[in-house]
């Protein structure tokens, strides 16, 4: 089960409030930064001892959770604690590490979750910070600490990542 793989020993996801989003375009090439509240993750290519990103969120019962990455989904949480483990499918996953950004947002506890999901725009990804620049502008590639050049290759193939195998496991 996912609870055996993704536990509280994995980091808790810390949500950044909308009013605190970093909207600086230089943030999208810095893996320690949280552009628009997104967190950087790496799906490792055949590296022993390194697991795919896994985070958990507490106090989710009765609330909706919006998941944004290469997919955008908003649904009701079925329990108090929710685990998220990310997987990669596709050719880019078969040759190198894959860098990606993801954001989890809990609906406010005093809001109708379905209406809240419906009102979310789902368009504010880190790349949207580039809209203020000319079409020919290219940001520096994401280069997390690594001993190989795989991070450079992965940043070029990030658009091909499919997080369709996102698994949610709810604990009560």
Distance between the termini: 15 Å
Sheet with the most strands? 4 strands, antiparallel
> What share of residues is helical?
10-25%
What kind of assembly state do the chains in view correspond to? single chain
What's the order of the H and E elements?
A: HEEEEEEHHE
Structural class: alpha+beta
Strand content: 15-25%
Q: What coarse outline follows from CA principal-axis ratios?
A: globular
Evaluate the radius of gyration. 16 Å
How many β strands by DSSP?
7
Q: Strands of the largest sheet, in order across it? A: 1-6-3-4
Low-confidence stretches: 147-172
Count of helical regions: 3
Mean pLDDT: 77
Describe what this molecule looks like in 3D.
With 172 residues, the chain is of the alpha+beta class. Helices cover 10% and strands 22% of the residues. It is built from three helices and seven strands. The strands form two sheets. A four-stranded antiparallel sheet has the order 1-6-3-4. The longest helix is centred in the last third of the chain and has 7 residues. The chain is globular. 27% of the residues are buried. The C terminus is likely disordered.
Which key phrases capture this entry?
single chain, 172 residues, alpha+beta, four-stranded antiparallel β-sheet, three-stranded antiparallel β-sheet, 3 helices, 7 strands, globular
Quick description:
The chain is α+β, with helices and mostly antiparallel strands and 172 residues long.
Break the fold down into its secondary structure elements and pairings.
Blueprint: H1 2-5, E1 39-43, E2 54-57, E3 64-68, E4 72-76, E5 81-85, E6 98-106, H2 113-119, H3 150-156, E7 167-171
């Amino acid at each position: 089960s996912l609870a055996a793989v993704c536990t509280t020993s994995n980091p808790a996801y810390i949500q950044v409030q909308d009013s605190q989003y970093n909207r600086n375009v230089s943030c999208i090439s810095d893996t320690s930064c949280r552009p628009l509240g997104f967190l950087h993750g790496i799906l490792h290519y055949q590296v022993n001892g390194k697991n795919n990103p896994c985070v958990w969120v507490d106090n989710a019962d009765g609330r909706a959770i919006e998941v944004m990455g290469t997919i955008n989904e908003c649904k009701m949480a079925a329990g108090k604690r929710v685990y998220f483990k990310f997987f990669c499918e596709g050719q880019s996953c078969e040759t190198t590490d894959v860098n990606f950004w993801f954001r989890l947002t809990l609906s406010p506890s005093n809001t109708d979750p379905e209406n809240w999901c419906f009102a979310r725009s789902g368009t504010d990804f880190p790349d949207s910070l580039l809209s203020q620049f000319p079409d020919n502008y290219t940001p520096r590639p994401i280069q997390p600490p690594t001993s190989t050049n795989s991070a450079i290759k992965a940043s070029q193939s990030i658009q091909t990542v499919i997080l369709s195998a996102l698994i949610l496991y709810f604990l009560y």
